[in-house]
Amino acid sequence: MSGDPRTVVRKFLARPQHEGAGAIVRRSIGRFELKYFDPFLVLDEFSVTAPAGFPDHPHRGFETVTYMLQGAVIHEDFEGHKGTIGAGDLQWMTAGRGIVHSEMPASHGTQKGLQLWINLSDRHKMIEPRYQEIASTNIAEASEDGVTVRIIAGESLGIHSPIYTRTPTMFLDFTLEPGAYMQQPVPESWNAFVYVLEGEGVFGKSRSSSTTAHHLLLLSPGDRLMAWNKSSKMLRFILVGGEPIGQPVVQWGPFVMNTQEEIDQTIQDFENFENGFEKARYWRSEATQDQEF
Ligand code: FJE
Ligand code: FE
């Protein structure tokens, strides 16, 4: 038996705003009008040009997914984990009980990407931090009838991503040639959205109006998404879905817990270098040291 296709229920344009140290983000999820789309806390399309960036800062209680679109960022954390995330590369970071890191441009020019924050359920908020990294060349890609999909998380066209998602999540990067049509199953009970990166597309119903870059579309319940490229240019968008956690969310900047008490405890842990923040006491990123305060 087949359910109903998903339709567009809300549409947001993500306008540029300042974040971090001189960085610019187009924030769709996580802004005032859309604080939380369970399990998603933040979706930023970011743009950084040196010396701007995201210098040393902590995280606890969720995952950050960084997917580069242009250029590269260097990340380094207080465990000594360091690397470059280049165009098309993926970093799936489970902050768990605590990470302190910096995310800075790797070279001259403008570096662009997407960063998605995925909440963790109460059982997983304090797990050990973990990274899953995939270089662009190793991200599985499938093509069919003018549709190309890069499988970041979840499954499409019979291909499974190796990424382990603590909170069940799918993350697909679609490119549709002019005239192409796609249909993608999405688990019925999940929350799902589309974020358009390039071109213009028609989503949900064939007769609906088209959507251009930097727009977020929240989708109704349903078992699949349909999309059309009726334009003469390439259409690129991401389709992301996740199983709702259904728990209270208390956020204080980079800390996301279930209760105010847990947030107070987290701030104390961070200030006292305890419960996962031990290594923050003497650590400064090389990127920050280089600035010689
Ligand atoms: C953060 C402000 C921030 N979006 N997109 C406050 F800017 C950040 C932060 C980021 C970020 C980093 C990258 Cl590489 C891409 C981003 C926000 O680092 F974590 C808090 N708390
Ligand atoms: Fe960060």
TrEMBL record:
Residue ranges annotated for the Pirin C-terminal domain, each copy included: 172-275
Annotated compartments: Nucleus
Keyword Metal-binding part of the UniProt annotation: yes
One GO MF term: metal ion binding
SUPFAM superfamilies registered for this protein in UniProt: RmlC-like cupins
Note on cofactor: Binds 1 Fe cation per subunit.
Needed co-factor(s): Fe cation
Any one Gene Ontology cellular component term annotated for this protein: nucleus
Keywords from the named record: Iron, Metal-binding, Nucleus
Domain Pirin N-terminal: from-to ranges: 25-118
Family matches, as Pfam families: Pirin, Pirin_C
Keyword Iron: yes
InterPro entries in UniProt: Pirin, Pirin_C_dom, Pirin_N_dom, RmlC-like_jellyroll, RmlC_Cupin_sf
Chain sites annotated for binding Fe cation: 57, 59, 101, 103
Span of the signal peptide: none
Coarse class of the protein's main subcellular location: nucleus
Family designation: Belongs to the pirin family.
Full protein name: Pirin-like protein
